[in-house]
Amino acid sequence: MHRLVALPQGTPARGRRAGQEIPGEGRQKTIILLFLPQLFIVARITEVAEGIFQIRVEDRKIRYFEALWQIPEGITYNAYLLKGDKCSILFDTVKEEFSGEFLEALREVEDISNIKYLVVHHMEPDHSGAIPALLEENPEIEVLGHPLTKGMIESFFGLRPRFRAVKDQELELCGRRIRFVSTPWLHWPETIMSYLPEQGILLSCDAFGSYGIPEEVSSRDVLPYFRETRKYLANVIGHYRRNVIQAIEKLRGLDVRLILPSHGPVWTEPKAIVELYEGLASGSKREKKAVAVYASMYGAVRKAVRRALEKFSSLGFEVLEFPFTDSSWANIADAIGEMEDSPMLVVGAPTYEAGTFPVMDMIVNLIAEKIGREKRILIISSFGWGGVAGKRLAERLKDFSTVRVVEFRGFPSPKELEEIDRAAEELAEGL
Q1: What is the Cα 12 distance to its own chain's centre?
Q2: Rounded to whole angstroms, how far apart are CA atoms 392 and 374?
Q3: How many Å apart are CA 79 and CA 102, to the nearest integer?
Q4: I want to staple 87 with a disulfide (CB 3.0 to 4.6 A). Which of 71, 174, 252, 273 is the partner?
Q5: Are 402 and 347 in contact (CB under 8 A)?
Q6: pLDDT value of position 42
Q7: How far is CA 247 from the centre of its chain?
Q8: Phi-psi region for residue 241, left (φ > 0), alpha (ψ -120 to 50) or beta?
Q9: Chain segment 319-354, per-residue pLDDT in tens
């Protein structure tokens, strides 16, 4: 059962710069599709700029993004429709399970038979999942995407639609100029972006995205969404931080006045979100913070890690701990997100069956793959009869800036706690 509610939503007026059009200025009309009774799904349609509509599906049911990252804050899947002369262009779709809601929302602003082109920025199924349903309704749609996209569509969906390969080039479609920008490994090899030069609009796909379900469709300020954006970047794109920097350099010559990402809010002040992404990806944005993630079966590692955090706190660091114990497990996605702008990490794990405690094996692999190498790391490890975990963790994290190891048998002695203090002081020098 569902009902369709149309809400005129006023957006704050933004100052007009001399001689420039401000995309999305004025009132936005949002249509909200509510599904009852749980209200787990909301589909919003908003005209975010003249002739450009966002179709936003809000996923509150999801628990683990990519079946890995715990996101109680939920996520949005944003697609965009550009109305041109006598036809329209759709940019991306949504996750397959929301295909029906997506098409129903799309019909509110356009006859699907009038959609002539589908631009596929990225083939990950949270953006491409509704392609089969869309093409079933209108098989005449021509799909535009990176050369790799054609084979992916066939292998993902068993479809061979009309397809045109695009990379770094400009086309006129439905009377509108569109410049395609190849941005590989953000975060798949076939990723592209679209730039509308007449309005200064960048459709950026996963780049400049964030977790969460913003109350507002658009924002000029990144601060209210800082945690969700930092967490998203670290979790999803962290492995490809060099590609983030390369893409930003490639985009720098464009007059971008509005960024339309595939997750999270529309950014009406692009400079702020670009600088945030660049600062995080390069490691130049840092807080005086120490983040500890550890597993402690019976309290030995916890005692040692908390001693380290007490020392860091006395040295002026904000300290955060993410424990995995017999009473609770921390949110791994949050931990990786907090590490993104922290110069100091504390990693704790006991030896377990001649190896590293299993959950910490996974987390340390994520740290090694997702987090920038400029971090300083204190490894704390305990053992009962033969120490293994400390050495293995140090080997896995050897490419980071500085790595210190404190390992002890049983529970830490007063001497070993003093060693932790000294290690923390040495690591903190210069920060």
Answers
A1: 27
A2: 20
A3: 9
A4: 174
A5: no
A6: 86
A7: 16
A8: alpha
A9: 999 999 999 999 999 999 999 999 999 999 999 999
The candidate with the shortest Cα–Cα distance to 368, out of 395, 344, 391, is 395
Question: Tens digits of per-residue pLDDT, 341-391?
Answer: 999 999 999 999 999 999 999 999 999 999 999 999 999 999 999 999 999
**How far apart are the C-alpha atoms of 56 and 232, rounded to whole Å?**
18
- Tell me the H-state helices in 348-413: 358-370, 389-396
| 423's tokens | 């290690």
Please answer whether residues 203 and 258 qualify as being in contact, where contact means their C-beta atoms are separated by less than 8 angstroms.
no
Q: Please report, in angstroms and rounded to a whole number, the separation of the first and last CA atoms in the chain.
A: 57
CA torsion through residues 101, 103, 108, 109, sign: positive
> Minimal CA–CA distance to 359: which of 346, 350, 368?
350
| 103 touches 95 (CB < 8 A) | no
Phi, psi of 41 (to 5 degrees): -120, 130
Q: Which residues of the chain have pLDDT under 70?
A: 1-41
As given in the structure block, the two tokens for residue 21 are: 């059009």
242 SS3 class: helix
Give one DSSP letter per residue of 105-161, joined into a string: HHHTTS-GGGEEEEEES--SHHHHTTHHHHHHH-TTPEEEE-HHHHHHHHHHHS---
Predicted confidence at residue 33, as pLDDT, reads: 56
What does the alpha-carbon distance between residue 55 and residue 304 come to, in Å, rounded to a whole number?
50
In the chain the domains, ranked by start, together with CATH numbers, are: 2-11+21-282 (3.60.15.10), 289-428 (3.40.50.360)
Residue 274 host element (H or E): helix 270-282
> Residues with Cβ < 8 Å from 419, sequence gap 6 or more?
406
Which residue carries 């860091």 as its tokens? 312
Tokens describing residue 389: 């975990």
pLDDT at res. 20: 33
pTM of the model: 0.90
| pLDDT given for residue 14 in this prediction | 27
CA distance 386 to 50: 67
Are the C-beta atoms of residues 410 and 277 closer than 8 Å to each other?
no
Q: Look up residue 139 and give its amino acid.
A: P
409 and 382 in contact (C-beta within 8 Å)? yes
